[in-house]
Amino acid sequence: MSGERRVLLAAATTGYQTRVFADAARRLGFEFKLATDRCHVLEDPWADSAIAVRFESPERSSAKLDGPFDGVVALGDRPALLASHAARRLGLRFHPVEAVEACADKFLSRERFAAAGLPVPPYFRVEADTGAQDAARRAPYPCVLKPIGLSASRGVIRANDEEEFLAAFARIRRLLFAPDLARLKDPRNRHIQVEGYIPGEEYAVEGVLTGGLLQVLALFDKPDPLEGPFFEETIYVTPSRRPAAEQKAIVDATARATAALGLTDGPVHAEMRVNRDGVWMLEVAARPIGGLCAKALTFDGGAPLEEILLRHAVGEDVHGVTLDGPASGVMMIPIPRTGVYQGVRGEAEAAAVPGIHAVEITAKVGQLMLPLPEGASYLGFLFAGGATPAAVEASLRDAHAALHFDLAAALPALPPPR
Predict the structure, then answer these.
(1) Which residues, 6 or more positions from 147, have their beta carbon under 8 angstroms from its beta carbon?
(2) In this structure, are residues 234 and 381 in contact, taking their beta carbons and an 8 Å threshold?
(3) Beta-carbon neighbour count of residue 411 at 10 Å?
(4) pLDDT digits (tens, 9 = 90+) for 82-107
(5) Collapsed DSSP state (helix, strand, coil) of residue 43
(6) What is the DSSP secondary-structure string of 91-110?
(7) CA distance 88 to 71
(8) Alpha-carbon span 304 to 292, nearest angstrom
(9) Kind and range of the H or E element at 181?
(10) What is the pLDDT of residues 297-330, one digit of tens each?
């Protein structure tokens, strides 16, 4: 590989996936530049020569990203918007700004899907600080309430009647006005979306677009029922066990959805539900699968997903890549209740389960763990491979059963001073 290729990565943190990107770039002989939202006052605190940016000001921050670059990739929804602005300014191949904005806004996504003739449930949005009573009367039951701008099922709650609707609305409103979200000053967080509940089984597609054409890298089954009241994702397994015709329908719907949003070049992570009425797109993100979950995918003898995305970003043809092994999967270990993490027992037993490749406990001792809908993290991750998707799923469930987490009761928050 040529050492002259230079790639820009926009990422929110210097976590696991950022390190994998950096390692993959070194293997490929690429020069790697990180743009992240760390404090701009400190002088290179991590000794990685990263460029300090502000994701809440993507267009202005993109002016700090001087080329030349041969490609750009992004981790996370807000970094993807920065990357799209940088790509437009520098003449790089990436998703258009307007398409990335639509992906990160659940209302705009629904509008684009409906305009393209994709099936959508009844939906409307309402301001978070007004209108709960009127919205409860308008809602189709059962329904789902969603913050417009959050991801990973955070704040998503099912309501079966007006009483549950009002309770869910108040809970989401408290989340949106909590300090960690209020400080972002994101206008999307001033609205809540109400949608008719879509029954069915849920799937995810990992892919890349090149000139608007979709290449599927993996189609995941989500074997756990996601029926509410909250929608915490747990197990992803690939390849899918669904019939070939159903898989084709999922891929075709994903391609139509990416076109409806205006996405053209770069990674996509799409989620959908399937029932007897067809494929219903939930959302499409202009980024790859998040965090450690990408570790479930390796290609062509061990190349991580991040390496494939780097090659694609600089214009290499990656259409020939194939997944390693017959089946693989990941379990995002759910948080059973609110509490302060004290430790875990059974790691060795979980790691010894046949098919388990890795046990990654990411919770830190003393860390307050919040389950959905308020939370935005997991206790850790389990990774497995096997001869069949069913074997992978069984390995993940057996390993999870071997783990026992100690969560101490959290002290109630002090009332604000008078």
Answers:
(1) 106, 154, 155, 156, 172, 175, 176, 188, 189, 191, 192, 193
(2) no
(3) 8
(4) 999 999 999 999 999 999 999 999 99
(5) coil
(6) T--S--HHHHHHHT-HHHHH
(7) 12
(8) 11
(9) helix 179-182
(10) 999 999 999 999 999 999 999 999 999 999 999 9
Read off the amino acid at residue 3.
G
Nearest one of 283, 281, 285 to 120, comparing CA atoms: 281
Q: Give the separation between CA 384 and CA 386, rounded to whole angstroms.
A: 7
Phi, psi for 169 (deg, rounded to 5): -60, -45
pLDDT score for 353: 98
Q: What is the rounded distance in angstroms from the CA atom of residue 54 to the CA atom of residue 153?
A: 24
Q: Which residue has better confidence, 397 or 320?
A: 397
Tokens of 251: 């891929």
Residue 296 token pair: 């479930």
Cα-atom radius of gyration of the chain, to the nearest Å?
Answer: 21
To the question of pTM greater than 0.85 for the whole model, the response is yes
d(CA 135, CA 406): 40
List the structure tokens of 361: 């406990």
- The letter for the amino acid at 84 is S
Token pair of 381, please?
Answer: 């991750």
Specify the amino acid at residue 108.
L
Q: Structure tokens of 122?
A: 């009844």
Q: What residue has token string 């790509």?
A: 87
Residues near 283 by Cβ (< 8 Å), separated by ≥ 6?
Answer: 103, 106, 109, 151, 270, 271
- Residue with structure tokens 């608007």? 212
Q: Which among 100, 221, 227 has a CA at the least distance from the CA of 156?
A: 227
Angle at which helices 305-313 and 16-28 cross, to 10°: 60
Task: Give the integer Cα–Cα distance in Å for 22 and 18.
Answer: 6
How, if at all, do strands 266-275 and 235-238 pair? unpaired
